[in-house]
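Z., the sequence and structure:
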Amino acid sequence: MAYINAPGQKMDMRQRARKILKNPLSWLGIALLVSLLLGSVVALLTAVTPSWYAPLHAGRRRVLNLADTAERVLLQLRNQIGNPARQTITWSITQAQINSLLAVRYSTPPSARSKVAFVGPFVRLTRGRITLAIRDMHLPFHSVASVTVAMSSIPVSKNGVAEAHVELEAVHVGLIPIPRAKVLGVLHRRLKEIGPLITQTLARYAGSRYAAAETPRILKYIQHAMYGKPFPLTLQAGGRTLQLVHIAIHGRRSSASGAPAPARIVLVLKQIPA
């Protein structure tokens, strides 16, 4: 009997389905259900921490040693730039050194995390790209926000001045990509807030006078980079002009001999004849 009545049951179910779909409240319920489902997926992806994000702990001996090394490497660059005898400067710093210095300089006790906006700064170097990441304590789930910047080869303009081309490639909160236009608008509005941080950093390694003179130009370069415009790579120091003729960003890889080579940034500067 169940088999005989099956077609009638199917017809009855179809009629019920049509009645439900004709009801506006039913459509509202379906839309609400879909919205909740999508919202849950977005929330989950926002809360997920990227697998590569691994800020270092400032209390570890290796991190403290690498932070000291990074300080010496930065001071070495300053000294070489200020030395007129150095016509060509080749300088590099590793990802581990950068992240160790960030961990020590911006370490935050767990008890104070509720009072600060950002914790856990981390830099990831891959081929031709730099990713800056930090945990934003004001976001739901204390999500990780990250910005990836691509740096292309440095072309030489008609007047012989080297230029760089930097492009904002991606911005994420957790695993969710953020529209580039929205990010650029926020960055443009907050450029004035970045200025004091640049001045403070330059003053630490190059002196307060140099920091005050160079900060406006660096802010201009950052603005050009935000919109993909090339900008010159010249540096005034010690009464001479230096030009950044080469920059390379290497991810972790193996050397020609098979030994592991750490991720690093390599810069080459040359003095421009007066």
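The two ends are 102 Å apart (CA to CA). Helices lie at 2-22, 24-47, 61-81, 95-105, 180-189, 191-206, 208-226.

Let me know what you think.
H.
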